[in-house]
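Render this sequence as a predicted structure.
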Amino acid sequence: MKHYLKLGFALLIINILITPHSSFPCNGKMRWRFLPIEQARKELAKLEAEAKIQQKEFGPGPFPPEIGNWIKYYNNPVFKPGPRGSWEEKSVDCFTVGIFEGKYMMWYVGTPQSLNCQIGLATSSDGINWTRCPENPVLTLGPPGSWDDAILLCQHIIFDEEENYYKMWYVGGNSQATFGIGYATSPDGIHWTKYPGNPVLNATEPWEGTLLEGQVVIKTPTGYQMWYGGINAQTDKSSIGLATSLDGIHWTKHPENSVFTPDNPQRWDGYSVDTPDIILDEGLYHMWYRGWKRPDGISWIGYATSQDGVQWERDPNNPVLLTSPLPGSWDNYQLYRSRIILGTNRKAMLSTIVDRMWFTGRNYALKAQVGFAIRIREFEKDDDRDINRRRFPRITQDKLDLSIGVASEDRIEIYYFTPWLKNISLNIYDSSGQKVKTLVKEINLPGFYQVIWDGRDENNKKLPKGVYFCELQTNIHLITKEIIIEK
């Protein structure tokens, strides 16, 4: 029974996640309850039939989904090329997805008939329904004769909270097919300034082939790390390398490159690997990557982990996401350029975490579009509801709740409850009102959450004893509680 309850909770999360966020009026999908009995039966039968169709559209695999497996959204692709004659009419791919300024932002490459690709921006409140920026494309080709006057490709973007700027690393090329990785900055993600010394990274090693692409960048307290694909455009042979930088501009390639190479030639990723997406979470590097077995062959998404970002271990359950087996499907040829946002690792009422993946799918006509998938994970401990009920005995559907427990100077236990699917921020301020640490800045599902704060600031510096304030906020609600740190 417990197993089925968990699946029920999982399905509830899926329903919340993939349903456009709006209120649920009485004349919505439950209106059959208020109809005459014969009409109610007909209406319910219609809804059940629609549900069966949607279930089939999830593709092969179990339904309800098995815990831990990625499952594609039933109404993929969620982002398609633009109208005929536009700068993005053929394909949209090679994107970055993140939650910035309380909304999903996706920068993507648009391909026109001329193949002079450029970079655009779209935003979303749910990661599924996207609105294009009216100023697209937001990063355009360089002037004639410049190093990036013919094409702009794969980019990765971070928001640097210390400098309050968006930073982009992108692939550019000229008409002679000479490629490099350039750098640009922006105050708003729309208006970009290219670094005058571009490109900041070029192919210089034999293993890198003819160009670098598919890069992902992480900023740590000690500097920047970039993983990138080095690919030979003639042979379709690719591996993944690592470079480091103190400023994001001047890069040093790792002496052990390439750090992630194709597997045994008999395996699904035995010919090439590239387009990594890497997340550093609780001291462990997580990488999702594209792999394929033969030149220009079908490609799938795999997963690997590392303690240091150099030595990687493949997941034994690889690949984690496959192309569609159906002829004519939008993603039946290649999957690549996945972008993942991990669900919170704080314990929620439903004892599950929902991870989100956006990926590029390509068909045999080489039309690329963006799809969406989710994965449901269980917590190591099954049930914190008793603890939550003791901490929040009077929860309601119209307000936040916040509770603080100071176990020690380096373990402050912060619990909160949100009744809404909303953008949540959880910040720590000192007694002067200066923000010293951002603990949460993401979209939360309704439920209970727990965060452990170690008493350190954004630079991992131990804060002195004193009075601090914990602020939990949505776009219209705010709650603050005091924290006293004593040494």
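Summary. The two ends are 47 Å apart (CA to CA). The first helix runs from residue 2 to 18.
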